[in-house]
Amino acid sequence: MRYLFLLAYRFLIKRKGSMFTASAAVGATIFLIIFNSVVLGGVVHGVTRDLGDMTWGHISIYNEKGLLERPDDQIIGHVLRDPAVVGAAPRTFATIKANHTLGLDSYSLFGIRAMGVDPIRELSASRLHDSIQEGEFLRHTGSAVIDDEVAKGLNATVGSYIQLKSISDEGPRSFRWLRVVGIFDVPGPTLLDETVIMHQTDLREMMKIKKNYSHEIIVRLRNTEETESVKKWIENSYLNDNDLNIETVDERGRVVITAYREGIQFVNILAYSGMMASSLGVITIMMMIVNSKVREIGILRSIGLTEGQVLIVFMIDGAILGVLGTIFGAIGGTLISLYLAQNPVALFSGLVPEVRFTLDALPIPMLVGFAMSVIASTYPAWRASRYQPEEAMRYV
Amino acid sequence: MSKLIIQTRELWKIYLGGTDPVSALQGINLEVREGEFLLVRGPSGSGKSTLLKIMGLLDLPSKGTIIMDGLETSKLRETARAKIRNQKIGFVFQSFNLIPELTVFENVMLPTWINNRQNINAKEETSSLLKTVGLEEKAHNYANELSGGQMQRVAIARALINNPSIVLADEPTGNLDSKSSLQVMNLIKRLNEENGQTIILISHDSEQERNATRVVNLIDGKLQN
Ligand SMILES: Nc1ncnc2c1ncn2[C@@H]1O[C@H](COP(=O)(O)OP(=O)(O)OP(=O)(O)O)[C@@H](O)[C@H]1O
Ligand SMILES: [Mg+2]
User: Fold this and answer.
1) What is the mean pLDDT of each successive set of 10 residues along chain A, which is 396 residues long?
2) In terms of CB atoms within 10 Å, which of A42, A130, A286, B176 comes out highest?
3) Which residue in B2, B35, B28 sits closest to B13, CA to CA?
4) Which atom of ligand 1 is nearest to the CA of B42?
5) How far is A345 from chain B (nearest CA, A)?
């Protein structure tokens, strides 16, 4: 059996060009698949991280039907008792109209979202303050932090006074003048585009919401690995509160995250179909090798090699190409993943994928690539085994 | 009289494929006994190579049978035929059929690997055969680094490594100069004289008549005596 390896190896090694071309073709797809799964996996982690940091906290406590039925302080005070929780903050929402007058021109935006926050609690419960591009984060009542798209729409800058109005209510206290103290810019999928952040007191007064009640409490954890256990604990604390929805960011962001996941699966399918192309490369090059070895195959058959053994020789060649390609692809994929994990790059929407390289990204693409190479070589190997011994003498 | 080693009965070979079918062999009945040195002669295209290929189980006849050592070979499966080629027959062709990717040593040893015999010291036998053909210094060169005469001597060493009972040689000196030809022919003669190996040789060279124990003429696919 060992001499079959020797023959296979020598047949290949004497044609280094073909050998490297074929294994590069295999390696390229393996590389692409690893790259995809790691980088696109990083996109999902990045989206989840941003949604947790900005939008819903690691755990979100809310009431689908409207305001929470318990005062915020009570819920916040309770969840903060768990040492895994580093912060919790209330958020209240409204749909509003915003106006800004500059000289003789006035600008308005209709149907944008206002988010009322507690500026102090927000500091420990989210990373919204890190998204400030200009100015500073909210500190007092009477001020607002606006998203850069809102700033563009209103032609407002830091220092501008904008007027916010409730859409539903036309009463005397239903509007507010707020001074813009900061402009923020969040990455694409955080759903905070077109948002005005204001003090919760201002929002409650404008919307006539009773003091101490909010739509949502976001909870930030020391370590996201504890999410499930903290969620369980909170659930157990409020067993009788049917109105409370307690969801992790994965659950709350299910729609967004699933959309990304599906996109990634689609791209992965494309990458795996790229294997078809590289298997064609393997078939072509193996056929070239087989066709250039007809005489040798005849000689081998004439000294007693069987059809099956000829088949094995060329299958081994396919396997060698597979192993080489797999090694190239895995090394390439690992290097790029490690590089991206160390040097995060922002994508088009401002999203920074959170690339985490783990060795689990390797085995499946490697196995599939290797198997593909072996399968692709079955046809050329079969053709090789069909040459008859008398052909040894025909090719002089 | 020594025993029959190869016997052909009504052997026909008809090549289809071209515009007209060619009847390269037309009912050959030939008996070769152990230890014979048979010289096959005949004009070009008379079917000599075809006969040798079929007797060496490299190709199948269109009709007729070959009995080898009493074994009717036409019913054998391809793996069994491969085993006979490996163990009982040594081939030497006009175009020194070596594997260029293997060294001289590996080329000679290759049939023992295929044979997978446990009880012979293949390496020692390879070395001693290479010494016999005078190429022990070239053992670790690749086959394509040799001259034609050297390659043919390697091919002979390879043909002998499994100690076959029959050596089939198709114009082994056809591509060699006269000095190399002489070396190769002397080697073949020695096989027959010293080892008692059966030789079937195709040659145009009238010199070979002196070495042969019997001569047959093939004309238009038929044997003439
Ligand atoms: N594979 C093949 N396909 C078709 N015809 C063939 C094939 N091999 C040989 N022939 C034909 O069969 C006949 C006998 O050929 P063969 O090679 O046996 O002759 P030969 O006696 O060895 O000739 P030479 O002395 O020139 O080597 C020729 O007419 C040849 O053209
Ligand atoms: Mg011939």
Assistant:
1) 91 89 89 85 89 94 92 94 96 94 92 94 94 94 94 95 84 83 87 92 91 95 93 91 91 88 84 84 92 92 94 96 94 92 82 86 90 94 92 60
2) A286
3) B28
4) 21
5) 49
